[in-house]
Amino acid sequence: GAVVSQHPSRVICKSGTSVKIECRSLDFQATTMFWYRQFPKQSLMLMATSNEGSKATYEQGVEKDKFLINHASLTLSTLTVTSAHPEDSSFYICSARADYFLQETQYFGPGTRLLVL
Amino acid sequence: DAKTTQPNSMESNEEEPVHLPCNHSTISGTDYIHWYRQLPSQGPEYVIHGLTSNVNNRMASLAIAEDRKSSTLILHRATLRDAAVYYCIIDYGQNFVFGPGTRLSVLP
Fold it and tell me: Phi/psi zone of residue A74: left (φ > 0), alpha (ψ -120 to 50 degrees), beta?
């Protein structure tokens, strides 16, 4: 099956700093990538959808200036949490989809655990 | 709004079949049904997906009701490694909406 990687797998940072998380599709080209956030004992919540070469579409309530998404190539998307605060501590998961019109499913990365002190 | 309904939790004995139900009464004709599972501290893992016909793969089978308002994920022989949260997701377009899923416990 298709493989999606994330880096780093976990990160601890101080409040006020920025953190960048990378999401890569290793063996396919992802026309669309998705970023989710999951708090303990809760389900995944979609944060934003990004298509290669265009601006990301953010879900309601997600601050686009705080969560910067760059989908610069068909195999790489990055999420930057700017000026992170303890309430941003969460499990961030990306997924990638090859081509919706071929009814491709989404393939998920292993997740990045962010802890903001 | 996940638009799917699943039991919060289920239990199974090891090496017995497990039938995980999902109701999706608002599904339309071109919406695919996807199943994923998630182990603790991991990203969701693709299990199976289908449109109208029943589907089989090496992990599981997907039985879709004739009216498509419900589906059942079938694990033919549960193992301890199958203990996870199982999500049934309807693909309405580009985005997936995750509900709370079903937490499956497998007893040795």
Answer: alpha
